[in-house]
Amino acid sequence: MSLVVQKYGGSSVADAEGIKRVAKRIVEAKRNGHQVVAVVSAMGDTTDELIDLAEQVSPIPAGRELDMLLTAGERISMALLAMAIKNLGHEAQSFTGSQAGVITDSVHNKARIIDVTPGRLRASLEEGNIAIVAGFQGVSQDSKDITTLGRGGSDTTAVALAAALDADVCEIYTDVDGVFTADPRVVKKAKKIDWISFEDMLELAASGSKVLLHRCVEYARRYNIPIHVRSSFSGLPGTWVSNEPQGDQQVEHAIISGVAHDVSEAKVTVVGVPDKPGEAAHIFRAVAEAEINIDMIVQNVSAASTGLTDISFTLPKAEGKKATAALEKIKATVGYDSLRYDDQIAKISLVGAGMKTNPGVTAQFFEALSDAGVNIELISTSEIRISVVTRADDVNEAVRAVHTSFGLDSDSDEAVVYGGTGR
Amino acid sequence: MSLVVQKYGGSSVADAEGIKRVAKRIVEAKRNGHQVVAVVSAMGDTTDELIDLAEQVSPIPAGRELDMLLTAGERISMALLAMAIKNLGHEAQSFTGSQAGVITDSVHNKARIIDVTPGRLRASLEEGNIAIVAGFQGVSQDSKDITTLGRGGSDTTAVALAAALDADVCEIYTDVDGVFTADPRVVKKAKKIDWISFEDMLELAASGSKVLLHRCVEYARRYNIPIHVRSSFSGLPGTWVSNEPQGDQQVEHAIISGVAHDVSEAKVTVVGVPDKPGEAAHIFRAVAEAEINIDMIVQNVSAASTGLTDISFTLPKAEGKKATAALEKIKATVGYDSLRYDDQIAKISLVGAGMKTNPGVTAQFFEALSDAGVNIELISTSEIRISVVTRADDVNEAVRAVHTSFGLDSDSDEAVVYGGTGR
What keywords does the record list, in alphabetical order (chains A, B) (predicted)? Predict the structure, then answer.
């Protein structure tokens, strides 16, 4: 008997009707002879409503208490889902993260899973039950306090349980049909990808694709758990993410897997930095100590006449203020001229393992952008990804141009439902 | 340093403003030098909303899952309350029933507390924290499943924690000023009782007074925990419930503590029961097996001519159908004539330890009813209580007449805020 772990996002269980629809889908998997563990997010906007309540009583809610508060969301959806399944004549039991054995570190609001001890789940499955598990939450190893895993945490819960239970597959149900070659809201002719490697998926996730989060894919790769991303509405096959394509999974052996874009970042430029050893280290130590995650870093060649250089980096817009404040503090010691802050940027990334063996990809990418009249401000590359920063206004046109240039356009306009993926 | 356990009902924490007000009150107790444990119910109508959701996905929600669902309510209110307290500059930690060590049996939806192991609470208090605890919930000893204590469960949580922590007092904050000599909505001249014995309070609770529930008072009496029922809105001293009045607690040494009434019951009469040994046992065995809690039982003297008698009992209206169905099944074996069901009744009870030594009380009670033109249908008595069943239409007039007759009327009309007390 195979074991399937399924995950349903908040939009799939937004109301009683959604919960009943999901219950039917779970029961179908059970009827097909699988053992089923279903991980569920909070219903619809519950999390945002709880955060709103928290802000009404405290401008800076304490992490421990915020986690206690937010975990009420999954408690509601998982209990309702278990009831709905029992109402269809099947046995189901719901488990909190703690009951399911999701052990984390003690970093509230963005805890990391450090162990999974699914003894109660196993026992429940062996009794013939469908096990429903609260996503997004765990219990800290040291303090036994309730923790949450941060945005996209339910996907990580599902993959971690799939690994601990040695599941055959982890199905991530969402409100889109799978992973696309580009955001279908921007590129009407974007195609659903039938199979994609962990590596390419990791790069897409890091580049702005929101269907799966980086952390979840990383976890799946480490434990070699195939992920099947699919729609909880349509029931069609979605996108498989794994090491190797299996069976009838179509692989087009395209050079490029997809085009991702991201408009959530801003660019900071430190102007007039003395070009001597240790200056860059000084700057990024200051940024790191402010606990800011930076993305791209570019240092220009210094002008020979002045011995000064500019250093630019990108970071989430939300952390812009913190970063510039941290840099102002070290202005005197570093001796740079000025700071520039720009939040009207977009990042466009081309991802595909095929580019390793196709040296023409970079040139074609830049030509496509140039033909579309899009100016490139920063460039950064990995072995299987090229990213550029452009003006935010240019992003849609740029993505479409690149998508067409690499032959990714679908022959027909695919009809897709697109939205957020819950958490 | 004294230890105070406080309990706040759902109406006290109905919204963000309510939570902030309660936070201030808790901090005040802390500032006055007490260690404080605050037990909190779910916000306002949360529980009803969750039950409504449950009914949308399943007509008969499974007990285990319903408990999982409902306990989300306190999780929300307690986390928000802890945040609000921290926002006032004091340290607070919230604890679920399970974390607070509230161990129950496995009867979902109406579990009983069988042990309290408050190790984590003690540690948190000793670190200087205010401890916030979810009322109404616990964890079952055997299955480790989440349980709820049923209606009024938060009061029981508070008293049980007060007992386990050897608290000096258990303060029950509600939306009324205390326990009154009658329901102030019916009797405008009802007086707040300053002190009442556990025994009298138990009888009032059993007779329809809703301020404190029977189970909570029973627990407090067993462990000798003084209860102080008071308003979370006014801050005035309320009603003390204990073995003996203390300090300046006013005791008027009245014969009668109060008049309670209850319109939630119905009356079943089994007509024409053969008057021979075992028939009554047969009837009440059938009712007990249907898990129906009955209240008063009256058997008339049998008519000599027929050898038949009538047996009447009262029970919650909600269980009327179940009871009559159970009795229909045994009609042939018992051989009674017919069943009568009447849900237009009211129960009026006079409570007071003083009646033990005042033989005239019963007569005065009946005279007061008679003068008010109220007919008595059933009578039942305990050592410190007399209850009668009347027509439901007569109840308000009857309560007022009895209240006046026993000199309980206040000299002035007291202004009171009255409503539900949460759970």
Answer: Amino-acid biosynthesis, ATP-binding, Diaminopimelate biosynthesis, Kinase, Lysine biosynthesis, Nucleotide-binding, Transferase
